[in-house]
Every structure is written in structure tokens, then in C-alpha cells.
Amino acid sequence: MGRITESARQIGSYWRTFVGDLMGDTHYRRYVEHQLRTHPGEPVLSERDYWRMRHAAAEANPGARCC
Q1: What is the DSSP string of 2-60?
Q2: pLDDT at residue 41, as a whole number
Q3: Range ranked top by mean pLDDT from 12-16, 24-28, 57-61
Q4: How far apart are CA 47 and CA 67, in angstroms?
């Protein structure tokens, strides 16, 4: 029974990570990590400003969006 429970937990964890990545939950964290790694000493946008920038860029450059 323990192996089944552990497997179910792992599947749930992978699923949450996948859905979170798909929905953008990790975008800001990855942006901050990138900024700190590749542009040390430069200011990092607040999460609110980051999402404003992302949405403005998407509106200015719709690309291959369906809608």
C-alpha cells in the first residue's frame, strides 16, 4: 500500500508542476533567477511590473495566438 501511495503522490506532484508551468505560475520566479544570474547588479522588476510588461508585450506582438 505504501508504494501505491508514494506513486500517487509523485504523480500528483508532477501534475501540479506541469499545470503550474502551463498556467505561468513559475514565469516570474524564472525571470528573477535569470536576471540575478545574467544581469547581476541590475534592478529586478516587481512581480506586478513583470506581468504588466508581459501582457503589454503580448498585446503589442500577438504572434501566433489563436484569439
Answers
A1: HHHHHHHHHHHHHHHHHHHHHHTTTHHHHHHHHHHHHSTTS----HHHHHHHHHHHHHH
A2: 94
A3: 57-61
A4: 25
- Measure Cα distances from 45 to 16, 21, 24, 31 in Å: 26, 20, 17, 9
What lies within 8 Å, CB to CB, of 44 at 6+ separation is 31, 32, 35, 36
Q: Is 67 helix (H, G, I), strand (E, B) or coil?
A: coil
Which single residue is written with the C-alpha cell 516570474? 28
Which positions ≥6 away from 45 have C-beta within 8 Å? 31, 53
